[in-house]
Amino acid sequence: MTDVGVLAGRALHALKMTWQAGRVTTLLYLVAIVAQGMLPAVLALLTKWLIDGVQRSSTSGGDGSGSVPEPMLTPLQAVVCIGVLTAVLAALPPIAEYLKSRLQRGVSLLVQYRLYSAVSRLEGLARFEQPEFLDRLRMAQQAAVTAPEQVVASCFGLLQAGLTVFSFLGVLIAISPLMAFVTVLAVLPALFLQMSISRQRSDMMWEMSPRSRRQLFYQRLLFDLDAVKETRLFGTGRFLLERMRNETIEINRAEEQLDRKTVTRHVPLSVLSAVVAACGLVWIVMAALRGEFSIGDVSAFLAAVAGVQSALGGAIADATAAYHSLLIFGHYLDVSSAEPDLPRPAEPRQLPALRRGIRLEDVWFRYRDDGPWVLRGITLTIPFGRALALVGLNGAGKSTLVKLLCRMYDPTKGRITWDGTDIRDVEAAELRDRISAVFQDFTCYDLSVAENIAMGDLKFLGDVEEIRAAAEEAGIHPHVARFPRGYDTMLSRVFYQEDESGEQEHGVTLSGGQWQRIALARALIRSRRDLLILDEPSSGLDAAAEQEVHDQLRRYRANSTSVLISHRLGTVRHADRIVVIQNGKVIEEGSHHELMDHRGEYARLFSLQASDYMDSTAS
Ligand SMILES: Nc1ncnc2c1ncn2[C@@H]1O[C@H](COP(=O)(O)OP(=O)(O)OP(=O)(O)O)[C@@H](O)[C@H]1O
Fold this sequence. Notes:
transmembrane helix, Rossmann fold, ABC transporter transmembrane region fold, ABC1_TM_dom, 3 domains, alpha/beta, 10% strand, binds adenosine-5'-triphosphate
C-alpha cells in the first residue's frame, strides 16, 4: 500500500500542474465547484424559511405569533432567492464542465510534453531494455493522459461533496444538533462499507495491472501490421486471441468476486441506513406534531438526509478514483524525474575534430550486471581517414561495439578515446553530432521521402538540393523520380496524404532494399561528420545494387574515417583494415591480403563464401 504522505504529495503535484496549466481557469473552476457544493444546502434553508413563513401566515393570520420561529426572509423574498439560486444552480454544471475540459486539455498538454521530454533526456539505451522501466513507461503514458485530470477532478469533486455535506449539516445543526446527529447516523453504515470496498477495489486493480498489460500486448499483436503478417501465416491468431481472452477472464473473475461482495454487504447496510433515516423521520414528525419542530424543519431534514447521503456517495466514488489515479500518477512522476542513465561529465570537455583516431582500450562490456560478457577486452584503433571493417559470426559482438562507439552504453571496463579524450568526458549529444550511421535495424518513418532523408540532419529539412544529392549517392533517386509526388510522396501504409485538392490518397510502400537505400541517404545527408558507421548497409540489396552501393560508398568513404560491418566479405575486402571478432575478442587484424596470407578465420570465411559462388557458377 502506498503511504498517505506520498499520495498527498502526488495530489499536490497534480494540483500544482493544474494551476500552471491555467490559473484563471483553475480559479473559476474552484468558484463553480464551491457554488455547486454549497447551493443545495442554501436552497434547503431557503425552502425551510419559505415553508415556515407560509405556515406562520396561515396559522396566525400574518401577525407573526405562534410556535413557528420567525424566518430571516419573508416568503416573497425567499421565493425570489430560491428562483435566482435555482437558475444559477442549473447554469453551473455546463459551465463547470466547460472549465474542467479546458483545464484537462491544458494539463494533458503539459504532462505529455514533460513526460516525453524526460524520456528524450535519457541518452542511453539501457533503460529502454529493462522490462520494469518499459512497464512503468507504459503506465506513465496512460497516466500522462488521464491521471492528473482525474486527480484534479476527484479532488475538486471531493471538495464539492465535502462542502455539500458540511453546509447541510450546518443547516441541520442550526435547526437541531440532535437532528444533525441522526442524519449522520443514517449514512454512517453505508459510508464505512463504501470506504472498505473502494480500498479493496483499488488493491484489486493494482494486482490485476500486470494482467491488463499482457492483455494489451496480445491485443496489439492482433492488429499490429508487422505482427499480422506472421499471425496470418503461422495461424497464431486464435492462439493469441485465446490468451487475450484468458487474461480478460481472470480480470473479470476478480472484478466479479468483488462486485458480489459489494452487493451482499451493500444491500443490508443500505437497508439499515434507510431504516435509521426512516426512524429519524418518524422521530422528527412526532416532534413536529408535538409542536417542537416546524414543517419547514421537517422539509430541511428530508433534504439534508438525501443531500448528505448522495454527496457522501459521490465523495466516496471521487476518493476511489483519486486513489487509483494517484497510484498511476506515481509512474508518471517516476519516469519524468528519472535520473540520467549515462553518467554526465562534471566538467564536459570539448570534442576536437578527429585528427589521429578512435581507440578502444581493453573494452569489456555486458548488457546487465548478471549477464554474460559480450565484449571481452577489445583493443583496437580506428585510424583517422581510414576505412575499418568488422567481421565475425552472428553474435560475435560487432553491433554492440558500434553502440559503444556512439555511447548508447558505457563500457563496463576499459575506455574508448577520441584523439586521446575519453568519450565519457564529453556530452553524449556532442559526440553523436560527430557521427553518422546506418544501423542494422534502421527506422522506417511513416513520413515523406524528403522527411525520411532529412531526419539524418534536420537542418536540411526543406533543402531539396541536399536531399536529392543524398538520394542520388544512395542510389534511390531513380525510384523516387517515379513516385507520384516525388520527394513529397508519403512512405506509409498506415497514413494517407492529402493532394492539392484536399483529397486523401495512399502513400507508397517501399521494398526492403529501397528502405535500406533511404536509410543510407539519411546517413549520407549527415555529411562532414568525423565518423561514418555502416552496420550491414546493403544486406537487403540485390547483387547488382549491392555492388553499385559499395562502389559508391567506397568513393564516399575515401579519406574519411569509417567503420563497416558486413557478412558479405567481398564488400569488406577493400577496407584499409579488417578486424575479426569472435566471442567478443579480436582474433585477427590486418588488410585483406595479410589476413588471407595468415590463413586464419577470415581466410576460412572468405574462402567458404568464394567457394560457394564458384560452386554455383560451376554447377
Ligand atoms: N540489448 C541487448 N541486451 C542483451 N544482450 C544483447 C543485446 N543486444 C545484443 N545482445 C547479445 O550480445 C551478443 C552480441 O550481439 P551483437 O548484436 O553485438 O552481435 P553481432 O556480432 O552484431 O551479431 P550479428 O552479426 O548477428 O548482427 C549476442 O549474444 C546478443 O544476444
